[in-house]
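Sample intake sheet
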Amino acid sequence: MKETIIKLLKEKPGLKGREIAKKIGVDKKEVNSFLPKYPNEFIQDGDFCWFLVNSKQIKIEFDKKWVDRNIFESSLQKAGSPLDFDCTSVVFVIPEGCKILLDAAARLLALCNQLILLNRSVKVDFSDCLSTFHYFNRIGFLNHLDENIEVSPERPKVSASETYKGNSNAVVEFGAVDPSQTNKALINQLSDAFVQQSHSRYEAAVFTVFGELIGNIKEHSKSAISGFAALQKYEGKGRLKKHIQTVISDSGLGIANTLRPSLKEHHPHLYKLHKVANIESDIELVIATMSKGEISRLGKGRGMGFKSSREQAMKFDAQLSVRQERFCLDFIYKDGELMEVKKELNLPKILGTHICFDFFVD
């Protein structure tokens, strides 16, 4: 109940006990007896209205287990996305035993850098989980984390990702996508690593996928924050299946917002369906773009078509996740066909487009 009330008071500070009880669906006596037990969290004024003691700080603590993109989103939901609140300080806590998968690390990295752009104070605390701190140093997470973000322990003077870059085919360290360049070296590095960890028959396919997705960041992101890409192979332990995971992220306008201004000219059939900007329209437009391809703000065969990526995902029976500002779509492929699109709605705000490919290869 505490987390629910904290989230409520972040959105609507100054509620009375009966108002809180009504909004969260419990008896007011339960609320009025509960809140005084946490004087360091909640404070009441002379009019019997409740506030958070430190309403300007948001603390987000992850679970003591493997954290994938779904658990990452759940942690944000509990505390509330710092992009949704008028906070001045944000602290991310990585507890002992927390292991963060690449897909969750990518979303965390993007969110941290977006907060700095809004002049928020940000801290990432690894003090109780040095293993994840060293892993993030190895994969280049710390290199791409804005220098104004406080890190505990202090960032190493020598980056392990720079020291050992290219030494392991199971990892491609976070690499920046430079909008002024073709980013060919990064595309080649991702493709070569993937082939080394799978089979040479995938070479042309993955080069096409990485080239297309990184090219779309270069062409359409329109963000002051650099996009990035990375790759990690997981051997599979417990519930974690053996797979290759690739992330490609940017902090730009998002797929629907990029496409919609040009629909009337280049895709009139889609314009009739999606000319009004709302969450339902955005979802359907992204589904159409990712499942059919050849939909671009520059016309057929240009830009954000995603045609090749879709076709190769079908061949691989891959799982493709596309995270937008308020929702995420998981495209599930089997036997060369799109079997299902899972929708996650009402997600905490994160700007941009965050794509994750999970390839389950032998």
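Comment: The mean pLDDT is 87. The chain has three domains: 2-52, 61-162, 166-362.
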